[in-house]
Amino acid sequence: MGTVTTARGVYPVPIFMPVGTRGAVRTLDGADLESVGADIVLANAYHLMLRPGPAVVARLGGLHRFMGWERHLLTDSGGFQIHSLSPEVCDEGVTFTSVYDGSRLRCTPESVVEVQVTLGADVQMALDVCTTLPAADDVVRQGVERTLAWAQRARRHFDRLDEKPEGQALFGIVQGGIDPDLRRESAERTVALGFDGYGVGGLSVGEPRSAMLEALAATVPHLPADKPRYLMGVGDPVGIIEAVALGVDQFDCVAPTRMARHGSVLTSTGRLNLRNAIHADGDGPLDPTCNCITCRRWSRGYLRHLLGVGEPIAWRLLTIHNLTFMSRLMADARSAIAWGRLEALRAEIRARWPDRTGGPSGG
User: Fold this and answer.
1) 76 catalytic, yes or no?
2) Of these residues, 32, 39, 76, 236, which one is catalytic?
3) 252 pLDDT more than 70
4) Is 91 among the residues known to form the active site?
5) pLDDT at 116 over 80
6) CATH for 10-253?
């Protein structure tokens, strides 16, 4: 258990960051996010760069004011999303096609830094190369080398910029596939560049959890304990608690919000599919141990009805519940660390969640 201090204030770790890809967590507003206990939200610089554009966000007061969110913000560089578009990648940068209008665009480590400076989040991420797994050794190695070269350029450019949001932090990203030796090397060389925090990217992209944890175990000991360590794109309870045990501080994933929109509910006893007919007459809450507004006011039967008839409020209410679950999970992890019962919590979570429910970061 610990805290991260920024110019904006302090947030506790370990922590889960809801994903607000385009400047909003789907179906929720800032008041909803405060009610679920979110202290930091992730937005995606790639999508905001395309629409509405960083200049528009800046003219409207910066990303915090634009979103109506006064707590912490982290912007992801969009490397994962760009990678999914089959871009042209070279040492200089990456060229890709816009998902909005089909135009050809180019990003470099320097331009991505400038976009995120203009957006004005509290934390920005350096541009990286996310390699699809499985991949040949030379492909993974090339991804590591380019990510390191881009990280060095991003660090240098960030330091040279005179006008930056007060106290904005820059995080580097460790790559290396599931090769423990390459992960270790990437971590050590990234740390040598001197970032404010460190993301671990390129995991939770379809590899077995055991392989992910082995790569993570080889990485985290080589990242500074006094800087935030952020595992990108992991949102299943078992993956999170295992990563916490390895020393990870921050997480993000679209899984809890995406699952909510499909009627998949996170509860203290495991995953619940609200679309199942057994819940049609359910008079109790989604989770009797949960104190979110959804569980306090509405029954399973009513929520299933809303979902079945396509009422958008169902997505909001289930999203509120799932994100409240994630906040409680992280609070339980912090408490377990403080009281020396993390091993007991790990056993409890593994017993309740035998299946992987996470997924890659994104929209």
Assistant:
1) yes
2) 76
3) yes
4) no
5) yes
6) 3.20.20.105
